[in-house]
Description:
Blueprint: E1 10-11, H1 19-32, E2 39-43, H2 45-53, E3 55-56, E4 59-60, H3 61-69, E5 74-75, E6 82-86, E7 92-96, E8 101-107, E9 112-117, E10 120-124, E11 130-134
Parallel strand pairs: 1-11, 2-5
Antiparallel strand pairs: 2-6, 3-4, 6-11, 7-10, 8-9
Helix pairs in contact: 1-3
Amino acid sequence: MRQGTSNPVKTLPVDTVHYPDAIAQALSQLRLVGVNGPYKVVMGADAYTALSEASDHGYPVIQHIQRLVNEEIIFAPAIAGAFVLTTRGGDFDLHIGQDVSIGYWSHSDKPVSLYLQETLTFLLLTAEAAVALTPAAMK
Length: 139
């Protein structure tokens, strides 16, 4: 999605106290290109962890962002940084690649470990529907 967006890629601030400013700028960018809400914020593990531990004068910074989008922030450990995107509908598509398959992982005296596998592709259909925020270290 980071490569597919037509919006400028922004950088998350080093100081998590300034994350709400970056999210507000991303929301403004979406509105400027005519992308209506509702909006969601999706954050990778490092950004989400830093945000959930941060406070600004005793007030949790995560709640500042939740007030901006009127939603919970989505934890997505597979991504780096964050995305601000619309959930108005029709901008993204999810393709399931194969049926769920089960496989053998390992075993010992009693437990047998199996795994489930499923492939999927998340497509960005409208290039202006998301703003990517890279981690400060990825500049």
